[in-house]
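Proteins fold reproducibly. Next comes an illustrative record:
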Amino acid sequence: MNRVGTRTKPYTKEELIEILCQKANELGRSPKFYEVIQRHTVIKYFGSFNEGLIAAGLSPNKKTKRLKG
């Protein structure tokens, strides 16, 4: 039995590109990794989140280094 709101059919690359484009339109910029619910599926299909953004015709996000503290 599936949980409510879970998807049983796998996403296609085209659907993921559409999701990324819709989120970019909503935000007025390329979405960040944590702003996309399907982020792990994007990585699965495209190899990285930024590669998914590039495939969608969006600007990739800059990588940031975390400070040790």
